[in-house]
């Protein structure tokens, strides 16, 4: 016969076991949702990107309040981390951040996306605006925000941040990506003694891109990044329209597209400043210096440089004769070197004036 004391031991042991089982199940759920654990929760967010990850905008970017972060441990960067949401399957998304000094080795083409400037509008970059030196780009289903914040107390040095959003996106998620990237860049810079001029809290970024219906307009109406081309012979050269972004003297990259009557981009004009200029030149290697254009067969581009006050790196201005990947043709069949030179000169002079740059120099062969 079991005694009352023995029964109490059995019941006590049963309850203790049940309690431990419940704790284990709760712990597994919390760990799986990223609420705690070595790879998740607020603790992992606080430690991510060397402790400088800006958390405002994360839930907006990833559409989740249950987040976990991991450091990437990439020695090529000052800091690198990835943040994931709790969703899985087609709705899953993640945000990758990489930060470096502009004085460090330029990153790979896969990160900087300068390897298709000649292919329609693929390399377009929209200015972040709101006082930030940055752009938002799109390629292959991924949005990227790049910010380059000059150290006002350290000459010729900037903190460069790249934020990639992997997964479905809309204006809200891209705005969240912009906030995380710019504010993490600011925190990282200040942590290392680099004083920067930060913009306002980002709002209202758009996923709209040039090249979609309705984005071309007559050259005579150009007021933004293509304004300098209004007085050129672009219309007679087969490109009477433009696709442009608002002018922004803070953006590290500017682009303008001269468009045919069929709404196809025929020429692309790009300006790169500071860290963006360094990244662009590194991605091109010796192609520009050797006089080879993107087809590696003829001189189907023109380029120029200028000295700018914010960086020892000369600004770079490039005009490309654009290729249409959809039809495998050139919307402007015959490239005019004289027109390209005149158009680039007008573009570069205008850009230089807006930025306080001097000494615009057309390169040999342009």
User: Distance between termini?
Assistant: 104 Å
Mean pLDDT across residues: 84
Q: How large, in whole angstroms, is the Cα Rg?
A: 26 Å
Q: What's the shape? A: globular
Topology as H/E string? HHHEEEHEEEEHEEEEHHEEHE
The count of DSSP E runs of length 2 or more, i.e. the number of strands, is 14
Structural class: alpha+beta
Uncertain stretches of 5 or more adjacent residues: 1-12, 14-39
Largest sheet features? 7 strands, antiparallel
Strand line-up in the sheet with most strands: 1-2-3-7-6-5-4
Percent helix, as a range, is 25-40%
* Strand percent estimate: 15-25%
Number of helices: 8
Keywords:
366 residues, alpha+beta, 7-stranded antiparallel beta sheet, globular, disordered N terminus
Topology diagram in text:
Elements: H1 4-32, H2 41-51, H3 58-62, E1 68-71, E2 79-84, E3 94-101, H4 109-112, E4 125-129, E5 132-139, E6 142-150, E7 158-166, H5 171-191, E8 217-218, E9 241-244, E10 253-259, E11 265-272, H6 274-284, H7 287-290, E12 301-307, E13 315-321, H8 337-355, E14 358-362
Antiparallel strand pairs: 1-2, 2-3, 3-7, 4-5, 5-6, 6-7, 8-9, 9-10, 10-11, 11-13, 12-13, 12-14
Question: In words, what does this structure look like?
Answer:
A hairpin with an 8-residue loop joins strand 9 and strand 10. The protein contains eight helices and 14 strands. A seven-stranded antiparallel beta sheet has the order 1-2-3-7-6-5-4, sandwiched between helices. With 366 residues, it is of the alpha+beta class. The chain is 28% helix and 24% strand.
């Amino acid at each position: 016969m079991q005694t009352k004391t023995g029964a109490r031991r059995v019941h006590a042991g049963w309850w203790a076991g049940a309690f431990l089982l419940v704790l284990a199940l709760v712990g597994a759920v919390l760990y799986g949702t990223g609420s705690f654990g070595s790879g998740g929760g607020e603790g992992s967010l606080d430690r991510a990107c060397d402790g400088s990850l800006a958390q405002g905008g994360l839930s907006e970017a990833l559409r989740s309040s249950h987040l976990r972060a991991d450091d990437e441990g990439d020695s090529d960067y000052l800091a690198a981390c990835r943040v994931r949401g709790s969703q899985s399957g087609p709705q899953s998304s993640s945000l990758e951040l990489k930060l470096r000094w502009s004085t460090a080795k330029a990153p790979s083409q896969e990160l900087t996306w300068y390897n298709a400037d000649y292919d329609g509008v693929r390399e377009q970059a929209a200015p972040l605006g709101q006082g930030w030196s940055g752009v938002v780009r799109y390629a292959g289903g991924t949005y990227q925000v790049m910010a380059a914040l000059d150290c006002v107390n350290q000459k010729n040095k900037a903190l460069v941040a790249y934020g990639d959003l992997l997964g479905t996106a809309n204006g809200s998620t891209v705005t969240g990506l912009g906030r995380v990237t710019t504010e993490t860049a600011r925190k990282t810079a200040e942590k290392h003694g680099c004083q920067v001029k930060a913009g306002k809290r980002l709002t209202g970024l758009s996923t709209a891109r040039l090249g979609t219906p309705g984005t071309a307009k007559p050259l005579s109406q150009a007021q933004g990044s293509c304004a300098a081309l209004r007085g050129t012979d672009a219309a007679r050269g087969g490109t009477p329209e433009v696709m442009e972004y608002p002018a922004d003297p803070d953006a590290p990259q500017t682009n303008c597209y001269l468009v045919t009557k069929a709404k196809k981009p025929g020429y692309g004009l790009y300006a790169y400043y500071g860290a963006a200029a360094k990244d662009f030149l590194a991605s091109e290697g010796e192609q520009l210096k050797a006089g080879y254009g993107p087809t590696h067969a003829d001189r189907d581009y023109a380029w120029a440089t200028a000295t700018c006050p914010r960086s020892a790196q000369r600004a770079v201005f490039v005009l490309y004769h654009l290729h249409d990947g959809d039809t495998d043709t050139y919307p402007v069949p015959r490239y005019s070197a004289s027109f390209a030179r005149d158009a680039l000169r007008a573009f570069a002079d205008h850009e230089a004036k807006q930025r306080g740059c001097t000494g615009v120099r057309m390169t040999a062969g342009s």
